Automatic annotation (TrEMBL):
Matches recorded under SUPFAM superfamilies: DNA/RNA polymerases
Residue stretches making up the Reverse transcriptase Ty1/copia-type domain: 32-275
Pfam family, one: RVT_2
Protein name, entry field: Reverse transcriptase Ty1/copia-type domain-containing protein
InterPro entries per the UniProt record, alphabetical: DNA/RNA_pol_sf, RVT_2
Organism: Gossypium anomalum
Source organism superkingdom: Eukaryota
CDD domains in UniProt: RNase_HI_RT_Ty1
């Protein structure tokens, strides 16, 4: 049955489950000593508050709990009066996937800690007064207001206050913050990495070489903050995480099912590729305009799905170029991506163990891919052992005058990412001793990076892209020629045939994870197996 969430206090107070949720929220606020009741001052601004109600669900869609949140109406705050600094960093998805790849290589387990009402723990530097919450006014003192000691949800500086608090506490515990990733904290000695913590707002991902250190860290966190120990991480930011002896598998099957249901594509016919071969989309094509709101919502859902599905990244990047001028052709192409997702619902990225922990990059471009402005597409992959963990496919900002220039610009983008990943691995005690190999399928682009004799042919190149030469000379990276047939990034630049696409999809580590016993439930023989993947051997 559909769960209806109340829109205001008057609706919520009619149901016991929401009353208990509001009481639990106020109990947490009182326990954290978040505010104090004071007299209303005539010359001070008082900010209003509002109740917000949400139902929390599990990865399978079942009800987890009813959640009530007291939120400050932060839109009425004035900069320089009620708040100053507001920015708070969160972990990049590339960093999170890097931790999965590293943990799979080292055979570590990834744990998750959830801080209850995290923003209530941040100390405020400003003096802020708020109204008493509706339905919970103190009897006989309704005229008074609350002065905040700590942050509440809705305040513009709430996230910054929480980050400052957790950052200071982790530093006191002996962690070193990464310069390249301000949400990554590492505790290590000269020989090994002892503990790694990655912060995403109120969720902490914890992994390391010693289980006893992880348990000690959990106790230290629970001494200061109200925590939910989720033990081994199984669900995070819409990603389902399966940790086993063979490695770590991440997917978004539950989210994909929701997207298909939302756009009435649950019973659509699957296709083998996300983009039709030879597909060329344009903003000037003569097709009927469609609802921009629905199109943007669909592309936004698909963009979120690329967190674990690099095989649809090119298609989604192509569709996102027409947010402002979508028509029937664009919507048809977007529905084709959904049809591909329908046939590969249980696909994701699997991180396993390989012979060596080596960072390798793949760079490719398609010149000129855009019909409207003739700009090229840049793409890259980076792998650490068995599967890729970092990927990108974007339209270039300038018009390349040749294939060489397009490839050189793409290589520069990949070099930027490689240098950042190299620093990140240094912080994690996984130093890359040799230059990072970046595979490129254009020999002229490699020659320009290695030999300044070609400067006469590169007058039209922007100066900022020539730092590739400097990185090459410093032995930080090494551009290596790779046959186009073996270049993994080819799947991110253009539509491919079904056979070629499936081959590259397998090479980048996108697959499905179904246990043998689950296969046997679906079919007893390989001939009758109806799974959307090749499980012939498992079925046998």
């Amino acid at each position: 049955m559909t769960i209806v969430e109340p829109s205001c206090y008057a609706e919520a107070v009619k149901e016991k489950c929401w009353q208990e949720a509001m009481e639990a929220e106020l109990n947490m606020i009182q326990k954290n000593d978040t505010w104090e009741l004071v007299n209303r001052l005539e010359n001070r601004k008082v900010i209003g508050v509002k109740w917000v109600f949400r139902t929390k669900t599990n990865s399978d869609g079942s009800l987890n709990k009813h959640k009530a949140r007291l939120v400050v109406k932060g839109y009425s705050q004035q900069q320089g009066v009620d708040f100053f600094e507001t920015f708070a960093p969160v972990a990049r998805l590339d960093t999170i996937r890097l931790l999965f790849a590293l943990a799979a290589q080292k055979q570590w387990k990834v744990h998750q800690l959830d801080v209850k009402s995290a923003f209530l723990n941040g100390f405020l530097k400003e003096e802020i007064f708020i109204e008493q919450p509706e339905g919970f006014e103190v009897s006989g003192e309704e005229h008074k207001v609350y002065r905040l000691k700590k942050a509440l949800y809705g305040l513009k500086q709430a996230s910054r206050a929480w980050y400052d608090r957790i950052d200071a506490y982790l530093s006191r515990l002996g962690f070193t913050k990464s310069i390249s990733e301000p949400t990554l904290y590492v505790k290590k000695d000269e020989k090994e990495t002892l503990l790694i913590v990655s912060l995403y707002v109120d969720d902490l991902l914890v992994t390391g070489s010693k289980d006893e250190l992880i348990e000690d860290f959990k106790k230290q966190m629970q001494d200061i903050f109200e925590m939910t120990d989720l033990v081994l991480k199984t669900y995070f930011l819409g990603m389902e995480v399966n940790q086993g002896e063979q490695g770590i598998f991440i997917s978004q099957q539950a989210f994909a099912l929701k997207v298909l249901s939302k756009f009435s594509m649950s019973k659509c016919k699957p296709v083998s590729t996300p983009v039709a071969l030879g597909e060329k989309l344009s903003s000037t094509s003569e097709h009927n305009r469609v609802d921009e709101r629905g199109y943007r919502s669909l592309v936004g859902c698909l963009l979120y799905l690329t967190a674990t599905r690099p095989d649809i990244l090119y298609a989604v990047g192509l569709l996102s170029r027409f947010m402002h001028c979508c028509n029937g052709a664009h919507f048809k192409a977007a529905k084709r991506v959904l049809r591909y997702v329908k046939g590969t619902l249980n696909f994701g990225v699997k991180f396993g163990r390989s012979k060596e922990l080596k960072l390798v990059g793949y760079s490719d471009s398609d010149w000129p891919s855009s019909v409207d402005d003739m700009k090229s597409t840049s793409s890259y992959f980076f792998s650490l052992g068995s599967s890729v963990f970092s990927w990108s496919s974007k339209k270039q900002q300038t018009v390349a005058q040749s294939t060489v220039e397009a490839e050189y610009i793409t290589a520069a983008t990949a070099v930027n990412q490689a240098i950042w990943l190299r620093k990140l691995l240094d912080d994690l005690n996984a130093r890359q001793m040799e230059a990072i190999e970046i595979n490129v399928d254009n020999q002229s682009a490699i020659a320009i990076a290695k030999n300044p004799v070609f400067h006469g042919k590169t007058k039209n190149f922007k100066i900022k892209y020539h730092f590739v030469r400097k990185a090459e000379l410093a032995k930080e990276i090494c551009l290596v020629h790779c046959c186009s047939r073996d270049l993994l990034a080819d799947v991110l630049t253009k539509p491919l045939t079904s056979g070629r696409f499936e081959c590259l999809r397998k090479e980048i580590g996108v697959c499905c994870l179904v246990a043998k016993e689950e296969c046997s439930k679906v079919a007893t023989t390989a001939a009758t197996c109806m799974l959307p993947c090749n499980h012939a051997q498992a079925c046998k």
